[in-house]
Amino acid sequence: MRYRILNLFADVRLLGAVLFLSVLRPAQATGVKLASYFGEHMVLQRDKTICVWGTGDPDAKVKVGMASQEVSTTVGTNGHWKVYLQPLSAGGPYTLTAASDGQILNVGDVLCGDVWLCSGQSNMQMPVKECAAREQHATLASHSNLRLCTAGKGWNPQPQFSADFQWRICNPESAQNFSAIAYFFASELLKDATLTNVPIAVVDSSFGGTACEGWIPQPALTVFKPDELHNSIFGIKPATLYNAMIAPLAGAVFKGVVWYQGESNSGHPDTYPRLLSTMIREWRKLFAEPDLPFFIVQLPDYASQWDGFYWPWEREAQAKVVLATSNTTLVVGIDTTDGFNLHPQTKLEIGRRISLAVRHGVYHENIVASGPVFQSLEIEGSTIHIEFDTQANGLSNSSPGNVRGFAVAGRDGIYHFAEARIEGDNVLVQCDEVPAPLTVRYGWTGVPDSTLVNMEGLPAAPFRTDDFAYSNVEVQREPISHQVTTSTYTIVVNGDGVVTSLCVGNAQFISNDPGMAGGSSIPGMFGNVNLPDIKEIGPRLLSCGNGDFTMLLDFGESGMKWEFVNRAKNDINFNVALSPAVTITRQSGVNVVQLHRDTSLITITGIDSIVSTENKLQFRVKGGSTKSVTIKCNL
To answer: What integer pLDDT is reported at residue 307 of this predicted model?
Structure first.
């Protein structure tokens, strides 16, 4: 019997990811059954032996057929059976059949092509509908040869035989609810002319907020010390994600794996190389493919510390795994986001870079697939000559002026940003403050201001030539904020389009002080949805938005008007959390509230609801509609 439990959790650290959790149990055999991985619209890996497995009554005969092939077997005493079909070239559709004791199962619309497993945590799980509207509009389309498979979320203390796999044909609706990274990667891959007639499938087996050790089988974790292993979100234990979401894929054949994870391990970058290399080795064992290609997405820009560490150290840990592990490729993630959002809405460029790496490394296309790679350095006096491997594509600068992103240090180990210029396949780096440089770093901050690229515009990967211990001190950039001050009030809107402060006189009504839940917010599947497209459209007008939602602020001397435009189909809740010292009074029978603090008063018209336990106001904007709110301030 299989039990499925639907739970809704809010994870503060992971910005409130909404996840569906499954507790899986093997089915009791009541006749022949195919494993849960097999479903209508699925794709089987071309040019490889095809494994088909399932359950049945012990000692029962099972006959499996597809594409003029037919193979028979006997169900084992444990109720499981497995057969192998000869490899098939790209094509279909086929019907897969399994028959036993007069019972016949048919799985239709089965294609043979290339199947990619995509896994990781929330930035892999994040669906297309949570991405920037311009990326959705640029890619969403129907592709009958592209199939999308989602593995049900879950964890289990024991390896499982089945999971909730859902196969779908790619169309705008199914793609919107699918992993953005996986979909963008596949849609970019379809642009390869050599793959025009090859069905492509992407299997998304990801879970937000999870650490690498959750995806490793228990026997392989025994070599780690207890303090080297950590739980994932919701207290999920090591190995239990592997048991529920990877073990049921045993027998499946994949062209390769795309792995986008590391955020939840960035507080322990010293152990991550061992964890990730162990995971790669164990997955290759499970899939009986000792050289299965892995494409590791290096963490993109992010300004804040995560568990006490900035991300350069986790990026380095990821790069170490690729250097030490055969048939792995690092996909550089920097310069794809602004660095102020843990779950950035821009993911198309990362998908494109993955597809380039795959086309070059797996399909052997003669294309430039990565940016410049550090090779060596030579020091001449105060100048460091750095040589790069450019794949014969040359070096370039993504912005006018000198190349940015390099820093040098002398004997004291203190790094200073340096001037750099391109000379052939070399970069010459010099800094007046460091007349005797010994080591160099490039792109070594949470949000690197780095501009070295090749002629294709692909960035150089961060690197360092020192072996200094971890240092977690850096000047942290923040998005640009806007402030309006009148004789009555002061309001601050940060670079994410969040109202972080509203004061009337000396009384603060909305506050972003540490430990306070103040500020405006729009809840989304992966945390609060930002409105980073900020425009000053008039002397007293400020627009904050994204592709689906816009907030227009019209400021007056003693009040303001907020207008919300919701272009999405679904309703959107716009929340405003107030300081605990604010008293809320609702006018009977109308949508007007008064906010009191000290001698100051704010009257708001257009309120929909009050969450008194959180001192929070809520405005509900229906899909495809506009809503206006007026705010009057009195001293």
So the answer is: 81
Report how far residue 1's alpha carbon sits from residue 628's, in angstroms, rounded to the nearest whole number.
Answer: 51
Alpha carbons 443 and 386: distance in angstroms, whole number = 14
Does residue 317 carry a pLDDT above 90? yes
**What ranges do the domains of the chain cover?**
25-111, 119-361, 375-463, 482-634
CA distance 384 to 418: 10
Question: How many angstroms separate the CA atoms of 263 and 17, rounded?
Answer: 14
Peptide bond into 93 cis (omega under 30): yes
Contact 303, 476 (CB under 8 A): yes
Contact 460, 443 (CB under 8 A): yes
Residue 194, burial from CB neighbour count under 10 angstroms (0-12, 13-18, 19+): exposed
Amino acid 363: pLDDT: 96
* 197 three-state secondary structure: coil
Distance CA 382, CA 568 (A): 57
Burial classification of residue 554, based on how many CB atoms lie within 10 Å of its CB (0-12 exposed, 13-18 middle, 19 or more buried): middle
CATH architecture group of domain 482-634 = Distorted Sandwich (2.70)
Q: What is the largest CA-CA distance in the chain?
A: 86
Angle at 130 between CA 545 and CA 361, to 5 degrees: 120
pLDDT digits (tens, 9 = 90+) for 51-85: 999 999 999 999 999 999 999 999 999 999 999 99
Residue 351's alpha-carbon distances to 16, 119, 313, 365, 415, in angstroms, are: 24, 14, 23, 17, 33
The model's pTM? 0.84
**How does strand 499-504 pair with strand 489-493?**
antiparallel
Kindly report, residue by residue over 427-444, the tens digit of the pLDDT: 999 999 999 999 999 999
Give the DSSP per-residue string, 570-585. S-EEEEEE--TT-EEE
Q: Which residues pair with 204 in a beta bridge?
A: 118, 150
CA distance 497 to 531: 5
Closest CA to 531 of 547, 519, 518: 547
- Pick the closest to residue 377 from 444, 471, 466 (CA basis): 466
Q: Are 280 and 272 a contacting pair, CB within 8 Å?
A: no
| Superfamily (CATH) of domain 119-361 | SGNH hydrolase (3.40.50.1110)
> Quick one: how far is CA 404 from the chain centroid?
27
End-to-end distance of the chain based on CA atoms, in angstroms? 65
Residues 6 or more apart whose Cβ sits within 8 Å of residue 517: 577, 614, 616
Q: What single string gives the DSSP state of each residue in 334-391?
A: TTSS-S--SS-S--HHHHHHHHHHHHHHTS---S--S--EEEEEEEETTEEEEEEE-T
Supply the CATH classification number for the domain 25-111: 2.60.40.230
Per-residue pLDDT reduced to its tens digit, 217-243: 999 999 999 999 999 999 999 999 999
Length of the chain: 635
